[in-house]
Write a structure and sequence with these properties.
Strand content: 25-35%
Shape: globular
Number of helices: 10
Distance between the termini: 30 Å
Mean pLDDT: 94
Order of helices and strands: EHHEEEHEEEHEHEEEHEEHEEEHHEH
Largest sheet: 13 strands, mixed
Oligomer: single chain
Number of strands: 17
Structural class: alpha+beta
C-alpha cells in the first residue's frame, strides 16, 4: 500500500531519476532543479516499499491578478512511474498537494500542462493564452544588427527584469519576479544549454529571448519584446534556425504586430489555474456582496457552498452557479460570465446579477510566463 506524504531531502535522488524517466530532461537541468527549485514543504509523493513512484513538485510564488498580489503555488514535475500508472496514485497525490498548499496560505495553483484534459477532473482550466510563432523550415531571414547573442548568464538578470516588468505590466496572471528569481531562471537555462538574444539599441536592452538550439529546432520559451525589438528578435531567431524548425512562445500581442514572411502565428492555451481558496479569492479579486455564487469543487471541501463575491458564506438566493475552476477563469479575467454561460460552463439564475458581473469582472489580457 502506498504512503502519501511530503517530499523530503532524502528523496532527491529518486525524484531526479523519476523526473528523467518520465520527461527525459538532462542531468544538468535535474541538478539545477533539485538544488534550486526543490521545496519539500510544497511537494508531495507516493511511496511504495521505500520506492518513490509518483510525485508533484510545488513552490510558492506571487501572481499579479487584476492588479492584486495573490499567494500562489506552481505545480510541476507531475509524474508517475510507468509500472504504477492507472492505479489512482496521482489523484491521491493531487488531493494532498492542493490541501497542503491551501493550508500554507496559497489561494491559487498554476501550471503549464502538456495536456489540459488530464486536469479537468480537479477543475484546473486554461487561464492564459500565448502566441505561438513557428516556422517549419526557417529560411531567408536575416539577423538584426541590434540583436546580440550570448550564453545565458545570471549577470544579465537586472537588465532583463526591467524588460520583463515593462512587457508584463498590465497582464493578469503574471508571475511577480525579483532579481534573484530572474537569476534563477537564467541559471536554469544555463544548466540545460540555453542561450540568450538581447535587442540592444543605444546601450539599452529593449527585448530578449531565452532559447535552446537543438539539432532540429530552435525553441524559445521566453520571449519578451514588442514592436521593432520583437520583429528584430524574431528575424534573428529565424536566421539562427537556418532551415531548422523554429518555435517561439510569447504574449498574444505578438500576433497583432504582423509576423515576418515565412512564419506562422497562432494562439494557444499554455497555462492552467485552479482555485485553492474560493472565499479568499472572491474577497481579494471581487469584493462585493450583492451577487452570490454557488460553487462546486471536487478536491477542496471548503470551496463548496454559496458565497457572496466578497467571499462571505451566504444563505440567500443563488445568482450564479459554476465550479471552482470556472470561477477562477472569471476572477483572473480569462473569461467573462457571458462567455462561460455560452460555453455551458456557468448557470445564470439571476440576469441582473450577471449584468453586474459583466461590468465589474470584464475579460483581461492574461499571460503567465513559464516557470519551474
Amino acid at each position: 500500500m502506498a504512503e502519501f506524504r511530503l517530499l523530503q531531502d532524502r528523496d532527491k535522488e529518486q525524484a531526479s531519476a523519476l523526473w528523467q524517466e518520465c520527461f527525459g530532461d538532462s542531468d544538468g537541468f535535474c541538478r539545477w532543479f533539485m538544488s534550486e527549485q526543490w521545496n519539500g514543504e510544497y511537494s508531495v509523493a507516493a511511496v511504495e516499499e521505500g520506492k518513490l513512484v509518483s510525485m508533484i513538485h510545488g513552490r510558492p510564488y506571487t501572481l499579479r491578478i487584476r492588479g492584486r498580489a495573490i499567494p500562489a503555488v506552481i505545480m510541476c514535475g507531475v509524474a508517475t512511474a510507468p509500472a504504477y500508472r492507472h492505479r489512482g496514485l496521482m489523484r491521491r497525490c493531487m488531493e494532498l498537494f492542493e490541501r497542503n498548499a491551501r493550508d500554507k496560505g496559497a489561494f491559487v495553483l498554476f501550471q503549464s500542462p502538456v495536456d489540459f484534459r488530464i486536469y479537468e477532473w480537479c477543475m484546473q482550466y486554461p487561464s492564459s493564452a500565448s502566441a505561438i510563432i513557428t516556422s517549419e523550415k526557417a529560411r531567408g531571414m536575416r539577423g538584426c544588427r541590434y540583436a546580440e547573442d550570448s550564453p545565458c548568464c545570471e549577470g544579465f538578470a537586472e537588465e532583463l527584469l526591467i524588460v520583463y516588468e515593462r512587457i508584463m505590466k498590465g497582464y493578469s496572471g503574471r508571475v511577480v519576479r525579483s532579481t534573484e528569481d530572474m537569476r534563477s531562471v537564467l541559471r536554469g537555462h544555463t544548466a540545460d544549454g540555453g542561450r540568450l538574444v538581447r535587442y540592444i539599441k543605444e546601450g539599452k536592452t529593449l527585448g530578449y529571448a531565452l532559447y535552446y538550439g537543438a539539432e532540429k529546432e530552435v525553441n524559445c520559451i521566453e520571449f519578451m519584446a514588442r514592436g521593432r525589438a520583437a520583429r528584430g528578435l524574431l528575424s534573428t531567431l529565424g536566421a539562427m534556425a537556418k532551415g531548422r524548425r523554429m518555435m517561439v512562445r510569447g504574449t498574444a500581442e505578438l500576433l497583432l504586430m504582423g509576423v515576418p514572411k515565412g512564419i506562422r502565428g497562432s494562439l494557444a492555451n499554455t497555462t492552467a489555474m485552479g482555485a485553492l481558496n474560493v472565499p479568499g479569492l472572491l474577497h481579494e479579486l471581487a469584493g462585493f456582496d450583492d451577487v452570490t455564487v454557488e460553487v462546486t469543487d471536487s478536491v477542496i471541501p471548503e470551496n463548496n457552498g454559496v458565497f457572496t463575491f466578497g467571499g462571505k458564506p451566504s444563505k440567500g438566493p443563488v445568482d450564479i452557479k459554476m465550479d471552482s475552476g470556472r470561477l477562477m477563469q472569471l476572477l483572473c479575467g480569462y473569461a467573462d460570465i457571458a462567455q462561460l454561460e455560452g460555453q455551458e460552463k456557468a448557470e445564470i439564475v439571476n440576469r441582473l446579477a450577471a449584468h453586474k458581473l459583466l461590468d465589474r469582472l470584464p475579460t483581461l489580457q492574461c499571460f503567465t510566463a513559464e516557470e519551474y
